[in-house]
Structures are given as structure tokens and as C-alpha cells.
């Protein structure tokens, strides 16, 4: 049974391809979910899938893509199960 986690990443995470890179990582890990920019400059998302794949995404989110500077990562269990695929939301 898949698990789901909601995350919020803060720091220099907008304008550095963070959403697109998160989608690429999630798809490579066979995770479902979504990612979006927030008005406060953070990036929020929901990821669902195998526990080991979720842990790999969590570790990746701590650094993000090369141009990002992650200050904090909030990573909390969530009951929502997203539809198949991983989308970048506006």
C-alpha cells in the first residue's frame, strides 16, 4: 500500500527549475503527486508511492537542483492519494 507525504521546501527554490526537477525525480522514482510554487516563495507538493522511493525523494528535496539553496524541508504524512502521474501545478 502506498504512503503519501506533503512537503514544503523553503529557501531559494523558485526560479531555479525546482518544480520541474522535482517532477523528474518523482517520475524516475515512480511516485505520483504534484508540486507547485506558493506565494510566500516556497515550493509545496504531495508525493505518494513506495516508502523507499519516498525516502529517496525526501533526501533529494533537502538539496534540490543545483541552483537551489534549500533552507528547510517540512515533510509530513498525509492521507491524500493523488491520481497517477506527477504534475507541475501553477
Topology:
Elements: E1 3-12, H1 18-28, E2 32-37, E3 43-49, H2 51-61, E4 69-77, E5 86-89
Parallel strand pairs: 2-5
Antiparallel strand pairs: 1-3, 1-4, 2-3
Task: Walk me through what this model shows.
This protein is 24% helix and 40% strand. Strand 2 and strand 3 form a beta hairpin. Strands 4-1-3-2-5 form a five-stranded mixed beta sheet, covered by helices on one side. The protein is α+β, with helices and mostly antiparallel strands. It starts with a strand and ends with a strand. It has one domain: Alpha-Beta Plaits, CATH 3.30.70. The model has no long low-confidence stretch (mean pLDDT 97). It contains two helices and five strands; from the N terminus they run βαββαββ. The radius of gyration is 12 Å and the shape is globular.
Features of the shown structure:
90 residues; 40% strand; alpha+beta; 2 helices; Alpha-Beta Plaits; 5-stranded mixed sheet
Categorize the overall geometry: globular
Structural class: alpha+beta
Arithmetic mean of pLDDT:
97
Strand numbers in spatial order across the main sheet: 4-1-3-2-5
Identify the CATH class: Alpha Beta
Amino acid at each position: 500500500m502506498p504512503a503519501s507525504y506533503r512537503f514544503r521546501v523553503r529557501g531559494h527554490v523558485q526560479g531555479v527549475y525546482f518544480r520541474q526537477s522535482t517532477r523528474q525525480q518523482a517520475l524516475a522514482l515512480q511516485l505520483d503527486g504534484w508540486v507547485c510554487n506558493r506565494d510566500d516563495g516556497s515550493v509545496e507538493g504531495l508525493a505518494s508511492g513506495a516508502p523507499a522511493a519516498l525516502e529517496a525523494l525526501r533526501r533529494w528535496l533537502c538539496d534540490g537542483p543545483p541552483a537551489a539553496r534549500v533552507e528547510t524541508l517540512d515533510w509530513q504524512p498525509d492521507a491524500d492519494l493523488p491520481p497517477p502521474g506527477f504534475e507541475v501545478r501553477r
